[in-house]
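Q: what does this look like with protoporphyrin IX containing FE bound?
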Amino acid sequence: MVGGPQRLSAPRGGMARRRREKAVLAPGHSPLDWARLKSSGKDLRGVQMLGRYTLADVKKHNTETDAWCVIRGKVYNITPYLDFHPGGKKDLMRVAGRDGTKLFMYTHSWVNVDALLDQCLVGILAPDA
Ligand code: HEM
């Protein structure tokens, strides 16, 4: 069986099905492992203090070794989370260097980003100058 009981009523075929494809995470990258890493005290932000960043600033961080994104006005360093994302690295990279709010809300609005990426927060989004 693919996935849990919620998938019994999942739509078949088309975008909706593709969107919920299961990614294979490397060993040691389960949600529990992520929770452990977050509470390990390791620096996951890569910045000394929280700041105000424009979209132009965020755009500079668009690689797999340095990926930032904006979700609902908050700027996150998603680099450490890439290998832990249940939807896979490739999908998460789609929001690297961008405001990913729309895509995020479209794929899984129920996910609590504030809690999940709290240790990856680098600042808040400021209007472009
Ligand atoms: C900062 C941004 C993101 C965070 C924190 C995040 C987090 C998560 C979490 C916690 C899950 C598991 C939740 C669940 O299955 O109910 C998940 C699943 C998923 N995510 Fe994301 N995500 C982000 C961005 C994206 C983007 C931009 C896409 C697509 C372009 C995406 C595609 C998926 C898919 C397809 C799954 C389903 C995997 C499965 O069913 O096993 N995610 N994500």
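The chain has one domain: 24-125. The CA atoms of residues 54 and 126 lie 5 Å apart.
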